[in-house]
Amino acid sequence: MESISIKNLKFSYTALSSKSVQILNGVTLSLEKGDILCISGKSGEGKSSFLRVIAGLEKASSGEISLFGEPVKQSEWTALSMAQKGIGFVFQNNALISDLTVKDNIAVPLRYHKMGTEEEIEQKADRALLLMLASSFANEYPYSLSLGMRKRVAIARSWALDAKILLLDEPTAGMDKNSRINLLSLLDNMRELYKTTIIMVINDLQVACDLNSKISFLMDKKLTEPMYFNEIKDNENPRLRAMAR
After folding, report:
1. What does the pLDDT read at residue 98?
2. Which residue numbers in the chain have pLDDT < 70?
3. 236 domain residue, yes or no
4. 1 and 119 inside one domain
5. Strand order in the sheet with 214-219
6. 192 within a domain of the structure (yes/no)
7. Domain that holds residue 32
8. CATH of the domain at 54
């Protein structure tokens, strides 16, 4: 089943000089339920902006998006509406609340959106913690956790909101090898168990190799055709081959 379809997506912003700067120009993407896609490219190409537009955090200039076969109206392409439709966004800086425990960080959005009774919210939070192997530090505070553990909590919080499509902005940035491998294993497990669709921005192509995931590059304001790392290395396009070096 198709989980997300994007057609001819365009995005521009107004610079300080009052000039319109185009970031995305005709981006097209289609993923099935449970797919993982890594998005890479040079710095400043608009990778993070692309995720933010999907999530409704930035307003698309034009384009179409469908979730699970249902077109999304322009008026509904907002952060709140997209979250309600199953889009989860995990910021690169995690955006955890420092004076709340790990479990409360997960529970607060559930309470705010009235997603069940208190008992049901507790169960949702516990299930998300268990999925990300974070139950043992449920009563800790974010500042006491390692970078890898904070990322697990941020992902658990987003997933607990019934996210069916997760958007991750450089989730392994700054992690050591073991933390990265552990996190990617948990994400793969999430995909296997719950068929969560995952789109993540990466700088290190090893992440895609570890996940056995296809990669698309944001190049010339569009996404290249998704392909595996070995296909990139042997591609006839020299610009793509250079990305794999």
Report:
1. 93
2. none
3. yes
4. no
5. 87-90, 165-169, 197-201, 36-40, 214-219, 222-223
6. no
7. 1-86+165-186+197-245
8. 3.40.50.300
